[in-house]
Amino acid sequence: MDLKALLTISVADKVFANPKRIALLQQIQACGSISQGAKLAGMSYKTAWDSVKDMNTRLPEPVVNSEKGGKGGGGAKLTLFGERLLQMYALTGQMQDMVLEALQDQAIPMNSLLDVMGHFSLKTSARNQLSGTILSLDNQTDSHQDNLNVGLQVELASGLLLNACVTQSSCARLSLVVGKPILLLFKAPAVSISLEASAGERSNQVLSIVHEIYSNSQTTEVSLVILNEQDMAKSTVPQMIYASIDTQLANQLNLTVGGQCYAVFSSSQTIVACMS
């Protein structure tokens, strides 16, 4: 299904910019003339001139600088604000396309803009990418160093709670606060697999179902579906965890597709990403 969304910007409930006006500005930028831009945008000169005049007077900054005279109606050039308006419109269009594509794909979570943008545009070497919201923050004294770390408790959309850890400077730089949406990133080799839950300070032990197993003589990659009662009750999109473990260990664990196990990773192995 080819879904499209058209952006209209209003000022005081009156249209300021819409696809037709944006097309006119694009043509003016390309040819340097309101009259020629009007022809290329498929509108009359009067409509184009009235549109430019309206946009120029509705906000403190104009969008087009024009000069009278000449058979062609004089020259015209977008202001810096006009150029930024086109850039904003293009970026918004990209975001709208991503959200519309996510709407049609049940595998993509839509709990926040960070979810959608992370799925389509955030490419990292860390295979694991879990979205959640900061539930609490607390300072932790590192026994091996003088600096303080900040422990984060993060709630996934399913209700599952995970632990993460960042330095105080990172916490301040990212402006981390309770309620802020974040992404937890961690590499597959940072995840170990256990058949039983065990005690571990600040570690994450996530009950999961084995989804796929790929092995060679040295390494086994395991994809796991996070399993918890709240996840099933809320009927949310299943979230995945990927582990890369030694093949000898995988053989000892006797992992099978459909079997349950725990994905274990330390809070200190997570990288926190967020939108400013």
Structure report:
With 276 residues, the chain is α+β, with helices and mostly antiparallel strands. The chain folds into two domains: 9-103, Arc Repressor Mutant, subunit A (Orthogonal Bundle), CATH 1.10.10.10; 113-273, RNA polymerase II/Efflux pump adaptor protein, barrel-sandwich hybrid domain (OB fold (Dihydrolipoamide Acetyltransferase, E2P), Beta Barrel), CATH 2.40.50. The protein is 32% helix and 33% strand. It contains eight helices and 14 strands. It has helices at residues 19-31, 34-41, 45-58, 80-103, 113-121, 168-173, 229-234, 247-253, and strands at residues 9-11, 14-17, 64-66, 76-78, 128-141, 148-156, 161-167, 181-186, 192-194, 203-215, 219-226, 240-246, 260-266, 271-273. Helix 1 packs across helix 4 (80-103), helix 2 (34-41) packs across helix 3 (45-58) and helix 4 crosses helix 5 (113-121). The longest helix is centred in the first third of the chain and has 24 residues, at 80-103. The protein is elongated. The relative contact order is 0.11. Mean pLDDT is 85; it is low at 231-235.
Order of neighbouring strands in the sheet with most strands: 7-6-5-8-14
The low-confidence parts are 231-235
Total number of domains: 2
How would you name the oligomeric state of the polypeptide chains in this document? single chain
How many separate helices?
Answer: 8
Percent helix range: 25-40%
For the record, what CATH class of the largest domain applies?
Mainly Beta
Describe the global form: elongated
**The CATH topology of the largest domain is what?**
OB fold (Dihydrolipoamide Acetyltransferase, E2P)
Mean pLDDT: 85
Which structural category fits the helices and strands? Answer: alpha+beta
CATH-defined architecture of the largest domain = Beta Barrel
Percent in strands: 25-35%
Please summarize the sheet with the most strands.
Answer: 5 strands, antiparallel
How many β-strand runs? Answer: 14
Topology as H/E string? EEHHHEEHHEEEHEEEEHEHEE
N- to C-terminal separation?
Answer: 33 Å
- Alpha carbon gyration radius: 26 Å
In CATH terms, the superfamily of the largest domain is RNA polymerase II/Efflux pump adaptor protein, barrel-sandwich hybrid domain
